[in-house]
């Protein structure tokens, strides 16, 4: 028995990843549910906080999760079309307006429920985030394409960047209030983001330039980007910068340096599948049932309010941005996921000495609900928009 426990302890993560993969394949075959929703269920059930055999997460697993997240974010950033955003600025206007109204509404709800001003500000900022990593995995799994698909992806990236910006600024105020050090407050907010964006932009220009004179295949280009993303996440993690901001900027700049990944390398192939399983298991394993239970009713209320604001704002701007109101509503539904972004932002805050998880129990409840339901909502939106590729039929 002792030896069995030792084996389970040493091989907990590989065993869990295998279980999550297998259950995801079965669920997708039998129910057509998104695989990543099943990964989340497995991670939550087997987490140490639920008396599962997964060990508590540490700095090493957090770094691996950030690398996994970085690879998915690079894919998102690489698909952002800046020319489209310039010719159709209403998409950016939609993102800013949606984020602003979600922030104001959630802040008002939190104050109404007698939460402190700082907690209300932090929860409002995090509620504006979407999860590009979740959305890109659903898109790749469903092989979807079209107006709803592209707008959901672009809005999720823009929303996440705005959420990181506002969250860092408010986090700076938290540090200032607790330490009295103005430099810490400045460093943890705008300077961090400018430095992160700068590092990502420099690498986005450098790597494609270095690849051009070499006689490399497209597969080698994909490998070069993979190695760069891993190095970029490790560097920003070590320097206490923002991996989210840096990798998104890297992907956006790299795309516009005209180095093209073929469709066969979309999602980084088998590596992308593996890191997706680990990432979504990790995120769910960070959530404790006690925290979820403590904030479930307020979290559910905020979740409904957030989704209503999304649907109304995106639908209002739909005609101006060139789509129907119906498709605008579907875009709002497709951008429901948010859990990956917020949990990793909270982890980065904890890594910098600001532990907010216990104070934000409604957010933990939202994270669990959207970790499981978010991919389902995105999948439904893409199907209702008729943008999902037909499955291959066996002959």
What can you see in these coordinates?
The chain is an all-alpha fold and 395 residues long. The protein is built from 18 helices and no strands. The protein has helices at 2-10, 12-31, 35-46, 59-78, 82-87, 90-112, 117-127, 132-142, 147-179, 182-211, 218-238, 243-255, 269-285, 289-316, 318-321, 325-334, 339-351, 361-384. The longest helix has 33 residues, at 147-179. It is globular and about 55 Å long. It starts with a helix and ends in an 11-residue tail after the last helix. The mean pLDDT is 84. Residues 17-378 form the Cation/H+ exchanger transmembrane domain. This is Cation:proton antiporter. Its main location: membrane. It is a multi-pass membrane protein. InterPro entries: Cation/H_exchanger_TM (IPR006153), Na+/solute_symporter_sf (IPR038770).
Sum this structure up briefly.
This protein is mostly helical and 395 residues long.
